[in-house]
Amino acid sequence: MKNIRSHTNTIASKAKRQAEIIKVFSHYGLADWFAKIPDGRISDFLIKPEQKTIAEKAPAERLRLALTALGPTFIKFGQVLSTRADMVGPEIAAELQKLQSHTPADPPEQVEALIIEEFGKNPNELFSSFDSVAFSSASIGQVHRARLKSGDDVVVKVQHIGIEPQIRLDLDLLGDFAKLIEKHVPESEAYQPVATTREFGRNLLKELDFTSERRNMERFTRNFQGDETLHVPVVFAETSSRRVLTMELLEGISGSQPEDIASSGADLSTFAKRAANIYLNMILRDGFYHADPHPGNFYLLNGGVLGLLDSGMVGRIDDTMREEFENVLLALVQADAEELSELLLRYGSAPQNVDKVGFRTDIGDLLDDAMNSGIEDIDLGDLLAQVVVIMRRYSISMSARVALIIKTLVMLEGTSKLLSPHFSLIEVLEPFRRKIIKERLNPRHWWKKMRRQVGDIDRVITSSPRALADLIDSFQSGQLKMKHEVPRLEITINRVVAGVLIASFFLGSSLLLSFGVPPKIFGLSALGTLGCLSSLFIGLQLLWSIRNNIR
C-alpha cells in the first residue's frame, strides 16, 4: 500500500511539474516549440497566444529567461546546451552562456539542520566560528565563512535543502521530453536527445555529491604537484561530507575584477598566459581538466599564483580522444583545410548524404580568411566556434566530450582576453604544438600506439566467435534472412580466415616482444621479432593479391 501511495505521489508530482514547465515556456512565447509533439497532455497546459508576454525579445533571450525561471536543473541544462552550438546554433549557444544561477540562500536554521544531519553536531561544535548567513548562493549550494578549531580560515559550501529530489524529478521529465522529441522530430536524431539528457543527468547527479568535487580538487593538486604557478584550495576532510564541503579560504583578487588586478601592480598579460598554460596542460598532458574557466573562478594570489575555484564541473579525455583532438588542433593551426575537414568528418557524426565537397570548401574558405590576418592575430576560440557553425550547416554533430573541450577553450580565450585584450591562445599553444610533433617522432609513441591497436585486434578476435555464433543462431531461428550472391565466395572466405590467422599470429608475437621472452637479440625477443616480421610479410602478400584481383 505504501509503495502504491509513493508511486501515485510521484505521478502527481511529475504532472504538476510538467504543467509548470510548459506554462513557463508558453509565458515566454516558446509554446510553438511543442507544436511538433502530438501530445494532448502538453497542449492542454499551453497558455493562449494572446496571453504571451515579452514577445518583443529575441527567441534565444526568451529561452534563457524561461530556463532561469524553471530553476537549477534547467539552468544547468542550459549551460550544457551553451557548449553545443552544433546542436542549438551559435545564437542560442551564445545567449545561454549568460545563464547565471543565483538562488536565494537557505535560512540559518535549515543550514544548521543539514549540518547536524551530516555530522551529528551543530556548526558551533564543528567550527571555532561559523557565519550562519551565506555570502554567496548558487544553484546547488551556498557558501559560508568559518574558522576551524585549528585556527584555519575556511569557506563551507552547503547544499540547498531539498534540491536533490527536485533535480531528480526534473531529470525524469527532461528524459520524457527527450524521448518525445526523438520520436516526433526526425531531424533531432543526429543529436541524440535521449543520450544527451542521460549524460547530463549523470554529470549533474555527480555535482550533487560534494565528495566528487573534493576528489577533483585533490586530483588537480596531485597533477600540479611541484608547480608553483597554480594553487587549488586545500580540502578539510573531517568537516566535509556528501552535502558539505570545507575548503581553504583563498585571499586574493577575483579574475572578474581585472581593474583591481591591474591596480595591484600584477602583470595582466603574464597572469592570462599562466592561466592558459595551466589549462592546456590539463587538457593535453593530463586528460583531466577544469571545465568552467569563467573569470570568477580565477583568483590572483600572492606572487602571481593562479588560485582555481569550483571544481564541480570537469572534463575527461582518454589517450585516443586526446590524440584526435591534437590532430584537429594541429590541422587548424597549420591551416590544413583538407586534413581538418577529413578529421571532422571522421570524428563527427555525419549523415550518409553529406556534401563532403561543399564541407571541405567551406572549411578551406574559413581557414584562408583566418590566415590572411596573420597567425598571431587569430582568435582560436572564435575560429573553433565558426568551425562548429559550419559543421551544424552540414548536420555534422560531435560528441559531448569534444563539445565540452571546445566550450572550455572558447571560454578560456574569452576570460584571458578580459584580463589582457592582446592575449593570443595561438601564441600560448605554439610550445605545445612543437612538443606534440616531437613526441610523435619518438619511437615510444609508436610502440604505445601499436600496443593499443594490438589490444583492439585482441578484442575483435576474442569477440568474433561469439558474434559469429549469434549470427548463425539468427539465421537458424529465422530472425535474419539474407539473399545475396557473392562471386568467388570461397576465395573471399579464405582471405578472411587468412587475415584472422595473420592478426592472431601478429598479436601473439607482439605479446612475446612486450614481455621480452628469451632468447633475445639486441634486447628484443627473437621469437617475437621474427613473428612480427613474418606476419607483416605475409599480410603484405595478402594485400598484394587482393589488389591484383581488384584490377
TrEMBL record:
Q: Does the keyword Cytoplasm apply?
A: no
Which terms are listed as keywords in the entry? Kinase, Membrane, Transferase, Transmembrane, Transmembrane helix
The UniProt entry, under InterPro entries, shows:
ABC1_dom (IPR004147), Kinase-like_dom_sf (IPR011009), UbiB_kinase (IPR050154)
Residues spanning the membrane: 496-515, 521-544
Q: Could you name the domain of life of the organism this protein comes from?
A: Bacteria
* Statement: the UniProt record of this protein carries the keyword Phosphoprotein: no
Q: Which Pfam families does this entry report, sorted A to Z?
A: ABC1 (PF03109)
The record's listing under CDD domains reads:
ABC1_ADCK3-like (cd05121)
Per its record, what are the GO molecular function terms? kinase activity
- Record-linked SUPFAM superfamilies: Protein kinase-like (PK-like)
In what residue span(s) does the ABC1 atypical kinase-like domain sit?
98-343
Which region is the signal sequence? none
Q: Which family does it belong to?
A: Belongs to the protein kinase superfamily. ADCK protein kinase family.
The record's annotation in PANTHER family points to:
CHAPERONE-ACTIVITY OF BC1 COMPLEX CABC1 -RELATED (PTHR10566), PROTEIN ACTIVITY OF BC1 COMPLEX KINASE 7, CHLOROPLASTIC (PTHR10566:SF113)
- Tell me the protein's name: AarF/ABC1/UbiB kinase family protein
